[in-house]
């Protein structure tokens, strides 16, 4: 028997989404109405997750139109209503959102066969809720006056994570505390990326997978462009540099699709793309030229909630102890290589990957991937069940004191702090004398600056693993490899 296409897609695209699927199934199985909020960045697979799990139960579905005004959103609503309920095709275009929700409740009541819980799916809600459109007022009416009495699942989905949090999850009006289940859909980690590509019959070794991940991250919509038989370099060259490559100009559409006045968001991204260590707030102000005050705070919050940047507390500094880093792999890769070579065409990356700038970038990109896989690092160190706090450490050098930069510290509640050093290297890494001296110096600076009484233990995490030497004994306590980042905690 031929397997339906949508089932094949569900098995592949939903790789690694077990917890999210379980949450959606529990909402469907409960004995009361549920409002499920799903947030996650553009292209991460939110819509397909909902459609795949709830496919047979969706009674009505609408997705907001980007850049559309209220009247166009209502026309779209009217068209979707006619498709879902053909016997009500003569209904006029609603004059406002409250009128539209009146029509929807009447259509749902008229078609209720009592055979099971139904799903009403509102996708890209931030686009539906245009300025002064009062969509959220209509949604509040729909939920409070109708849905709670009908035992349905209402799914509200949006790519603008910060907007969803401010306007829906933290709403003080009619939607206050109405969301019963929340899903934040993150990009795939390395293990999920490996499983996803295998399900699509793309078999790469882990070195190749790491190179691919460093360039485009764990975004399913990007990864589905990879073809069987390609090396990572071939796939990156075709997808990012060829004239019709999906990611050749994705950057231009990415931020305007998520944020109003996205120019400031892009300024922050461009500034962070130029530093390997990240910036504190003052440095970010100076380098991004974004206005200080509440506006910068909002921009940083929106970029953080949407997963493009991450914040790391600086160990030992309670007040001005926060650094921002760009953690979206595609944005980093785009600004470093795609944009400067926009007219290079196919074959550009094959040449770029041989120069020193690319090799230097690999070290930074690998470090960024490591920072995003802390649970896997903890599992490899056998401290998965131990409470830890992740942070970074930075102290500038002066005439009176030594400087140090440690990008990842795991402060454990058993009296140990793991200091993580990352290396992207061909073959097993054997630390040389210069590296060992630098690690000892950094440990000494950290100890003196923080007066910590905890044991400071170095961990060397190399892409191809590392080898203990006579000189490294007593300096490095643990060697981890790239394979450890593929663990499932």
From TrEMBL:
One Pfam family named in its UniProt record: ATPase_2
Gene Ontology MF terms: ATP binding
Residue ranges of every copy of the ATPase domain listed in the record: 16-226
UniProt superkingdom: Bacteria
Protein's name in the database: ATPase domain-containing protein
Species assigned in the record: Neolewinella agarilytica
């Amino acid at each position: 028997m031929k397997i339906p296409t949508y089932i094949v897609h569900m098995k592949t695209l939903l790789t690694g989404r077990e917890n999210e699927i379980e949450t959606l199934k529990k909402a469907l199985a409960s004995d009361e109405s549920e409002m499920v909020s799903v947030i996650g960045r553009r292209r991460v697979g939110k819509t397909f997750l909902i459609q795949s799990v709830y496919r047979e139960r969706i009674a009505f579905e609408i997705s907001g139109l980007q850049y559309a005004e209220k009247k166009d959103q209502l026309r779209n609503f009217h068209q979707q209503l006619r498709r879902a309920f053909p016997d009500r095709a003569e209904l006029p275009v609603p004059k406002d959102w409250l009128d539209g929700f009146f029509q929807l409740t009447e259509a749902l009541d008229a078609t209720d066969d009592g055979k099971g819980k139904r799903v009403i799916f509102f996708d890209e809600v931030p686009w539906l809720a245009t300025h002064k459109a009062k969509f959220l007022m209509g949604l509040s009416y729909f939920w409070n006056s109708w849905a709670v009495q009908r035992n349905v699942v209402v799914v509200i989905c949006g790519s603008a994570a910060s907007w969803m949090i401010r306007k829906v999850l933290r709403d003080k009006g009619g939607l206050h505390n109405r969301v019963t289940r929340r899903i934040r859909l993150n990009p795939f980690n390395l293990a999920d990326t490996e499983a996803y590509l295998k399900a699509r019959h793309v078999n790469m070794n882990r070195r190749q997978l790491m190179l691919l991940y460093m360039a485009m991250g764990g975004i399913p919509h990007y990864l589905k462009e990879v073809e069987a038989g390609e090396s990572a370099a071939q796939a990156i060259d075709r997808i990012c540099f060829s004239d019709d490559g999906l990611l050749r100009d994705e950057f231009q559409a990415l931020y305007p699709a998520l944020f109003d006045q996205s120019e400031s968001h892009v300024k922050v991204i461009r500034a962070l793309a130029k530093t390997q260590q990240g910036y504190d707030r003052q440095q970010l102000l100076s380098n991004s030229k974004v206005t200080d005050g509440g506006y910068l705070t909002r921009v940083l919050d929106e970029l953080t909630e949407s997963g493009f940047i991450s914040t790391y507390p600086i160990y030992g500094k309670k007040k001005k102890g926060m650094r921002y880093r760009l953690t979206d792999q595609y944005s980093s890769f785009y600004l470093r290589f795609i944009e400067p070579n926009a007219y290079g065409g196919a074959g550009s990356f094959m040449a770029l990957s041989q120069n020193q700038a690319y090799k230097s970038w690999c070290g930074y990109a690998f470090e960024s991937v490591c920072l995003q896989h802390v649970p896997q690092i903890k599992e490899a160190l056998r401290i998965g069940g131990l409470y830890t706090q992740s942070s970074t450490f930075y102290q500038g050098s002066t005439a009176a004191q030594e400087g140090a930069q440690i990008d990842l510290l795991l402060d454990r509640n058993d009296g140990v702090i793991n200091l993580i050093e990352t290396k992207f290297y061909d073959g097993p890494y054997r630390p040389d004398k210069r590296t060992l001296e630098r690690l000892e110096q950094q440990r000494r600076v950290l100890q003196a600056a923080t007066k910590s009484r905890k044991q400071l233990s170095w961990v060397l995490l190399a892409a191809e693993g590392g080898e203990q030497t006579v000189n490294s004994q007593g300096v490095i306590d643990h060697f981890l490899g790239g394979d450890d980042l593929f663990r499932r905690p």
